[in-house]
Amino acid sequence: MTDVQAGSPGPAGAPGATADPAAPGRDAARPVVDTALAVSTTGLTKRFRGGQVAVDHIDLAVPRGSVYGFLGPNGSGKTTTIRMLLGLAFPTSGRAELLGVRMPEGTVRVLPHVGSLIEGPAFYPFLNGRDNLARSDAADRTAEPRTAADRINGALDRVGLLAAAGKRYRNYSLGMKQRLAIAASLLAPRQLIILDEPTNGLDPQGTREVRTLIREIAADGITVFVSSHLLAEVEQVCSHVGVMRTGRLVFQGSLAELRGTGAARIRIETADPVAAAAVLQKLGLPEPLVAGDEVTAPLGDFAAEQICADLVHAGVGVRGLGVVSPSLEELFVGLTGEGYDVDG
Predict the structure, then answer these.
(1) Would the pLDDT of 170 be above 70?
(2) What is the pLDDT of residues 250-265, one digit of tens each?
(3) Per-residue DSSP letter, 168
(4) Rounded to the nearest 5°, which phi and psi values hold at 68?
(5) CA dihedral 25, 29, 34, 37 (to 10 degrees)
(6) Phi, psi of 164, rounded to the nearest 5 degrees
(7) What is the model's pTM?
(8) What average pLDDT does the chain have?
(9) If you write DSSP's letter for every residue of 282-315 in order, what string do you get?
(10) For residue 117, pLDDT beyond 70
(11) 9 upstream amide cis, omega within 30 of 0
(12) Cα(223)–Cα(244) distance, integer angstroms
């Protein structure tokens, strides 16, 4: 796990570690800019020394209060983008802002308001959950030591691990380990939580636990930016999505807007599909497809009711008629050229 602690600019030597000369305590106390976007980038690009372009001029716009699903196949640039957002990697060009603050220059100022979980949890296996969180809390230079116990218990309670706080980390299930990592990001009040594949490798029960936790975090008004390749997670949790393909952002918008990108098709069940297809062609519907006793065609701007009336007027018996929209899986395959795990 790469976990950027509150009040800390990141690991020693990490990009942005000394970018802000302000005193940590004073700088961390300054409020971040009140902006409509929790995350924004303009032309953000990362090119490695060998010439490989991992992230190619992407413009992210993550509304405050949203649950933003950052989607794409493995190798599409999601984790590299997240590392640049958190100041753990320098962009080759472009700019990024978290909570209205330029990164990585504003690392010290903004990270106390951001929790993150990148590349899986990593804690001391011989320590219990409470002691592991105590070590995480102690790394926060802005935290008040006298109230540490209350913060730790509150974070454990929030992720449903208070009863298991005395259990050694090595005996936790994968779902419990992920929830403990999220608890570490919630030790201080946050405005933004960034999670990189939080359900990766979990069984269905663990996936449900993390999914429920994301909903609860979002219900408190915290913006959640979650990288994932699981469509069920997106459908049930996210309000907005950004879709990556080979380093490029190929779609961004609300989940409803994504669904609206797919062309609806009309599906007709009839004993005379050839005649029905001829009627559709005469009406101007392109390329009707016949399969058994069904005919389908892009609906376009036509009204299904009018098509039904024209079929009946032409003497074609209609046993069934409906309008079919593409599934999320079909839309993602169309955008990325690759399949996705639907159920996780």
Answers:
(1) yes
(2) 999 998 888 877 778 8
(3) B
(4) -100, 115
(5) 40
(6) -105, 15
(7) 0.76
(8) 84
(9) HHT--S-EEETTEEEEE-TT--HHHHHHHHHHTT
(10) yes
(11) no
(12) 20
CA dihedral (51, 54, 57, 60) in degrees, to 10, reads -170
Q: What is the pLDDT of residue 60?
A: 97
SS3 of 263, please? Answer: coil
- Residue of 191 and 73 predicted with greater confidence: 191
Contact assessment for residue 177 and residue 203, using Cβ atoms and an 8 Å cutoff = no
List pLDDT tens digits, range 11-56.
Answer: 333 333 333 333 334 344 444 555 799 999 999 999 998 889 999 9
Q: Is the pLDDT of residue 4 over 60?
A: no
Q: Which residue has the tokens 């990585």?
A: 104
**Using CA atoms, how far apart are residues 182 and 213, in angstroms rounded to an integer?**
9
The backbone torsions φ and ψ at residue 311, rounded to the nearest 5 degrees and listed phi first, read: -65, -45
The per-residue DSSP string of 15-67 comes to TTTTS--S-HHHHHHSPPP--SEEEEEEEEEEE-TTS-EEEEEE--EEETT-E
The SS3 assignment for 161 reads coil
Q: Assess contact for 249 and 80: CB atoms under 8 A.
A: no
DSSP state for residue 239 in the 8-state scheme = S
Rg over CA atoms, the chain: 25
Cβ-Cβ contacts under 8 Å for 323 (sequence gap 6 or more):
264, 265, 266, 267, 299, 304
